[in-house]
Specification:
CATH superfamily of the largest domain in chain B: Periplasmic binding protein-like II
Largest interface: A-B, 31 and 31 residues
Number of strands of chain B: 13
Oligomer: heterodimer
Number of helices of chain B: 19
Structural class of chain B: alpha/beta
Helix content of chain B: 40-55%
CATH architecture of the largest domain in chain B: 3-Layer(aba) Sandwich
Strand order of the largest sheet of chain B: 2-1-3-12-4
Number of strands of chain A: 28
Distance between the termini of chain A: 73 Å
Chain lengths: 844, 429
């Protein structure tokens, strides 16, 4: 649906809701108004009763006077005198006027003539027609408001017809008795209940609409004229007037100010055709304010909701657009990935298949076969690396990569790192330095596999992209971490390699990114290494930085905060002794001296072999020989082996000499031994390594006495291999047979369990367990074995040997009760290492 | 976001305008600046002789826009002329009361005027300049105890559409009048001019004769003195006026029989005029005041409305006269309750705008200097000043007017000749 359409629908819904609210509010307002109007009408009816009682009361007084006067055959003077006596209200008065002349006497003197009591109604159009005056006691005979001719006050009069005695003619004479009340006094009493409606007003009209009494808001002298003046003079007006004078009810009309008002009317029961009117501005009903507030609040609410929805909709639209772009990008990436994969997998596969074919054809040519097999091995390893990397990057990007921390030795890790690098360094004749500084904590708690992956990737890249004769240096430093319980490991790898362009560096952490360089194209690589490294560093909450310049080299800097393992080595302190350390690398000299000092040893440093010889000779002459001399193998003037030879020949045959090297020691081990070196130690010089080696040298006298491992201790071992796939079984059994290890096969987990159950104690030393097998998988089989009653059977070491190579798979295996994990394809060296580990643990 | 900003701005603007509206309500539309606390609560009563005074009640409402808590009411006093003095001294005296020029000099109203405030007092700040100077009467002490709120004059209602229909122009001279009447006659109009003729009070004869007589007296102070003294010798000065009446009837401008069918000098005169077949209806300004309300009461006028104006009767070849007399005047009871607010109301009312507004509602001639605002009375605004006569300023008294009225009526009815009528001056009652 288009945005415009959505907005239209929203606006339509808002309008519909507002209309509903307005209609509902109006209905409620009308209901409330109707109730208030009914209440107003009822109050008017109540006022009518009050008014009626009042008028009846006043009329009754007049009636009593009239009856008395009539019964006594009084003259006008006597009647007025009687009234003066019986009159009690100070502001009221009484007038008696003869019907024929409309003149007579007042109970009070004229305003303008204090002695004059005469009164005339001749010019007051009130008594020309007296048919409205009923017989005594039959009705209320009240006049309209008129001007009292005696004092000029606006007044009302209650009237009765009386008969007076005329002394002049001796005959009765008709007269009118008027009990006159000032309106000002009446107005103070005759008001609408203020507590009900503040501005409600009252009036009384006769059948013609003339006001008997009128309040302020009633304009004109006639209510009907008032109505016509300010309201449309429609033909229904006459009907309205007839209704007013004959029933009780109410209607709305406009007052002289154009305000809508409510007029309630009710006839006065005791006075035919008179009507009581109550008048009040409609806004006094006060029914609309809340409703409009409701409409306002709903409007604002809907508006806010609309704006909010619109904003959210736009936001999600943007997100959807972004997601769509990302999906398209991902799709393109997938296509690119598959294309690259196809290329990168086919390349080594092509080599493997091609070289296999060549080897088959030249089976007689042993040298050719060996060469081809060597190349096939390289291609296979590359393929394996590629697959591992792909799996890793896939895991990382899907967010499923979980770190599996465990306690490990950073010394072993670094040694492993150096060992792995040595072949390439040697092959490319690269100058290699590995320096450590302040490495105090040997055991750390982290995912060693992933940490190794980070360090190896960076170092192997440095070696890979450094041309022969170049140099690569590694600096590792342990610092205090801001995270409690952690150390900060800084790992810096610098090379003098081909370097990277800024354009490439911008995307170097993207998968399958490789620099476009003719030199690079000749180098094997998956293009995933840096991407995986970056993801791993991020996963371990570390940082990775890179400075590089094309043609000058690259420096990677990785900083990781790694928890310290609970297990640490006991305090390593050597007996006080003097040690001379000789190396042309001043940094190494400095760090090694620091390390030796921390071991309680006094270390002297010499940057060259010649200087070292002088120092050794001088010590020897003063009979203060160094307790031990540590020599770098590779020095510019005299190498370590020659130096050893000279010390032995010219100074002393007994001074213990340690040779240190950053290179593969196997190549120099023989010569060094022959020259008289006591032991060999690889760079970097860890504190624990130095401690152990020095202790060994000073304790045994000769480390090189250790015989070369011929794996004879593995001969006769019995290993049960649970493997459903025949080829795999053949491969592993053949490999192990090479080491004199006996193997037996279980085709699935169930058979494996049964074999263990039925086996005599000690029949097997170890089980290699595949995971995915028919009938019973390796995990269940392990659990069943661990649940066996036989202590030997239930505790037999079980190593997973599986193609499920992820860390969570490792964790899963360990959780099931296994003792280790080897991923396929198997590296026989790792297998043997694992067997040794198991053997060592057994000894413990 | 831009739309939202616009909506918020619109709401702010609406709120601002509402606020402005509220503020504006505190001031009168007329620009009246209140001098007292606008929250003052009090009552003011105006007493008068009118049965209804809706025009004044409309002013009450306008005043309440400034002073919402002032309760103003109009009270009609029965037998006003005899009760007003007592009412002023009674328990509930009015604040403002009707007065008129005829009361001045009559001892009966001495007490009333003794209670009247001097409205020319500068402290009251009343804008008397907005009223035509000929209508303001300064007494012997140079006080102004009454201010006209309406004025009255004599003239004729003219059916302008009928003139257009017949292709005739409204006459502005005596000759043109006679010519137009003859033209209407020839077109079948039996009485081109009409008026009330049943009684002398309010009869058309007086409406024609009085301006002419007043003009004669205005030009002859000696004659005025004689006339006010009711000296029979002043009868001679009535001749021109009486001649005019007689000529109109004799020339067929007015058909007496047709006029006699009009039963009263107010409603019936108006309704007859609204029949639409009378080109010119002779009447006073008081009668014209009833036209507005009766337009809707006349079925003929409702069916076929027409444009009409009130013009001076062109009694001479130089045109007609504008007899400019005050009608109802307001006086202020100086002993009333709330005198400050009473004077504040008078200050509000005595302005060109409010008096014109009230005159417009009442359809009476305004006393202000601006006659053009009401199209009906607009022709009087075009009368040159030398033809405007103010009887009160001139000193014409009520007894004089009675002589003229009765004489004109009897001459017009054919009951007396002009000679007889002139000879009887001073004897009419």
């Amino acid at each position: 649906m288009k945005k415009t359409m959505v907005i239209i629908v929203n606006v339509f819904i808002m309008i519909a809701m507002l209309i509903f609210v307005v209609l509902y509010s109006n209905t409620q307002s009308q209901n409330t108004a109707q109730r208030q109007i009914e209440h107003f009408e009822n109050t008017t009816i109540a006022m009518e009763r009050v008014t009626e009682n009042y008028l009846e009361g006043e009329q009754r007084i007049c009636d009593v006077w009239a009856r008395y006067i009539n019964s006594r055959n009084m003259t006008i003077d006597e009647a007025v005198s009687f009234i003066r006596i019986s009159h009690v209200l100070p502001n009221a008065s009484a007038h008696i006027v003869f019907l024929d002349s409309l003149s007579g006497l007042s109970s009070k003197a004229r305003q303008d003539a204090p002695d004059d009591y005469s009164v005339s109604y001749a010019r007051v159009s009130l008594l020309e027609d007296v048919r409205w005056i009923s017989d005594i006691g039959s009705s209320i005979n009240i006049s309209r408001a008129y001007t009292n001719p005696v004092n000029g006050e606006q007044s009302l009069a209650f009237c009765n017809l009386i008969t007076l005695f005329d002394p002049d003619t001796d005959v009765p004479k008709d007269a009118i008795l008027l009990r006159v009340l000032p309106i000002s006094e009446l107005e103070q009493k005759w008001i609408f209940p203020q507590e009900e409606y503040e501005n409600a007003e009252l009036s009384m009209i006769d059948a013609d609409g003339n006001y008997i009494i009128k309040d302020h808001s009633f304009k004109n002298s006639n209510f009907f004229e008032f109505y016509r003046s300010y309201n449309s003079g429609d033909t229904a007006a006459q009907e309205l007037f007839e209704k007013i004078t004959s029933s009780t009810g109410s209607f709305s009309m406009y007052n002289s100010r154009g305000e809508k008002c409510i007029l309630a009317y009710t006839p006065i029961a005791s006075k035919a055709e008179w009507v009581l009117l109550s008048f009040m501005p409609m806004n006094e009903l006060n029914v609309n304010t809340e409703n409009w507030m409701l409409v306002g609040i709903v409007s604002v609410g809907l508006l806010i909701l609309f704006v909010f929805d619109l904003t959210v909709m736009l936001y999600f639209n943007q997100k959807l657009h972004a997601a769509a772009r990302e999906a398209a990008f991902a799709n393109q990436a997938k296509t690119d990935f598959l294309s690259t994969m196809s290329h990168d997998i086919r390349t080594p596969m092509n080599a493997i298949i091609g070289l296999t074919t060549i080897a088959k054809k030249n089976l007689d040519d042993t040298e050719s076969v060996r060469e081809n097999l060597q190349k096939i091995t390289l291609a296979s390893n590359h393929l394996l690396t590629l697959i591992n990397d792909i799996l890793d990057i896939s895991k990382v990007e899907s967010g499923k990569l979980i770190l599996s921390p465990q306690t490990f030795s950073i010394v072993e890790a670094v040694e492993n790192l150096v060992n792995i690098s040595q072949p390439m360094i040697k092959e490319k004749n690269i100058e290699f330095h590995f320096r450590i500084s302040r490495m105090e904590k040997e055991y750390l708690y982290a995912d060693q596999l992933r940490l190794n992956q980070i360090y190896i990737n960076i170092l192997s890249n440095a070696i890979k992209y450094t041309e022969p004769g170049g140099h690569v240096s590694v600096d590792m430093r342990e610092d205090e971490s801001k995270k409690p319980g952690c150390v900060q490991l800084t790992y810096i790898v610098s090379d003098s390699g081909i370097g990277m362009s800024p354009e490439y560096m911008a995307n170097m952490y993207q998968p399958f990114s490789r620099q476009t360089d003719s030199r690079v194209n000749s180098i094997q690589g998956t293009g995933l290494g840096l991407a995986i490294t970056k993801q791993m560093v991020d996963l371990m909450n570390g940082t990775i930085n890179c400075q590089s310049e094309p043609g000058k080299g690259t420096t990677f800097n990785v900083i990781l905060d790694i928890p310290i393992a609970e297990r640490q080595r006991e305090d390593m302190v050597l007996e006080p002794m003097d040690v001379l350390i000789v190396d042309d690398d001043p940094i190494l000299l400095e760090t090694a001296a620091d390390t030796l000092k921390s071991l309680g040893v006094t270390a002297d440093c010499a940057e060259s072999a010649s200087k070292a010889l002088e120092m050794i000779s001088h010590r020897h002459e003063t009979e203060q020989d160094y307790s031990i001399v540590i020599l770098d193998w590779k020095m510019p003037d005299i190498d370590g082996i020659e130096m050893t030879r000279r010390i032995r020949s010219t100074v002393s045959p007994d001074i213990p000499i340690l040779l240190i090297s950053a290179y593969d020691r196997t190549d120099i081990e023989g010569a060094a031994k022959k020259a008289g070196a006591n032991a060999f130690i690889s760079k970097p010089l860890f504190r624990s390594t130095l401690y152990d080696t020095i202790n060994d040298v000073l304790g045994t006298g000769a480390k090189f006495a250790e015989p070369e491992n011929d794996y004879s201790d593995l001969h006769g071992m019995n290993i049960l291999i649970a493997e459903d796939f025949d080829v795999n079984w053949e491969v592993i059994s053949a490999l192990l047979e090479m080491y004199g290890i006996n193997t037996e096969r279980a085709e699935n987990g169930r058979i494996c369990v049964e074999k263990i159950k039925s086996a005599a104690e000690g029949s097997y030393d170890l089980i290699f367990m595949d995971i995915q097998m028919p009938e019973m998988n390796g995990l269940d089989a392990t659990k069943n074995i661990r649940a066996l009653d036989d202590p030997w059977a239930s505790s037999i070491p079980i190593i997973a040997m599986t193609a499920d190579a992820f860390s969570e798979n490792v964790t899963e295996c360990l959780n099931a009760g296994m003792n280790g994990h080897i991923s396929k394809p198997v590296d026989i060296k790792l297998v043997i290492k694992e067997i040794y580990r198991i053997k060592e643990e057994k000894k413990i | 976001m831009k739309k939202l900003s616009c909506m918020i701005s619109a709401i702010f603007m609406a709120v601002s305008l509402t606020a402005c509206g509220s503020k504006m309500n505190e001031e009168s539309d007329s620009g009246f600046e209140p001098h007292l606390d606008t929250n003052t609560s009090c009552s003011i009563t105006v007493a008068g002789s009118y049965d209804n005074f809706e025009a004044l009640e409309a002013e009450f409402d306008r005043f309440n826009e400034v002073y919402p808590n002032v309760r103003l009411s109009y009270v009609k006093l029965d037998d006003y002329n005899n009760t007003i003095s007592m009412a002023l001294q009674g328990n509930d005296p009015p604040n403002i009361f009707f007065s008129n020029a005829g009361m001045k000099g009559n001892t009966k109203y001495d007490q009333m005027f003794a209670l009247a405030e001097d409205l020319s007092d500068p402290e009251l700040s009343l804008n008397l300049d907005c009223i035509r100077s000929g209508l303001i009467n300064h007494d012997k002490d140079d006080q102004v105890v009454m201010i006209p709120v309406f004025s009255r004059t004599y003239g004729m209602l003219v059916n302008n559409d009928l003139f257009k229909k017949e292709g005739l122009s409204v006459p502005s001279t005596w000759t043109e009048l006679l010519t137009v009447c003859e033209a209407f006659h020839s077109k079948g109009y039996t009485s081109p001019m009409m008026g009330y003729s049943l009684k002398s009070s309010g009869c058309f004869m007086n409406t024609v004769a009085y301006p002419a007589f007043a003009a004669t007296l205005a030009s002859n102070p000696e004659a005025l003195e004689l006339a006010n003294a009711l000296d029979p010798a002043a009868g001679e000065y009535m001749r021109p006026a009486l001649n005019t009446v007689e000529q109109l009837i004799r020339n067929g401008c007015i058909d007496l029989n047709a006029c006699d069918e009009i039963e009263d000098n107010y409603t019936q005169v108006i309704l007859r005029f609204f029949e639409g077949d009378v080109p010119m209806m002779i009447c006073t300004g008081d009668t014209v005041s009833g036209t507005k309300k009766r337009e809707s009461q006349s079925e003929a006028f409702t069916n076929e409305p027409f444009e009409y104006t009130f013009s001076p009767i062109p009694l001479t070849d130089d045109g007609g006269y504008f007899i400019d007399s005050p009608s109802i005047e307001f006086s202020v009871n100086k002993n009333c309750d709330n005198p400050d607010m009473t004077n504040e109301f008078m200050r509000f009312l005595i302005t060109k705008e409010e008096l014109n507004n009230m005159a417009s509602l009442k359809r009476l001639m305004t006393p202000t200097t601006d006659l053009s605002f009401d199209s009906v009375y607009a022709p009087f605004g075009q009368i040159p000043s030398d033809r405007i006569i103010s009887p009160e300023m001139l000193g014409i008294t009520d007894p004089l007017t009675v002589q003229m009225r009765v004489a004109a009526f009897q001459v017009g009815k054919g009951e007396l000749s002009i000679d007889e009528a002139a000879a009887m001056y001073g004897s009419y009652e």
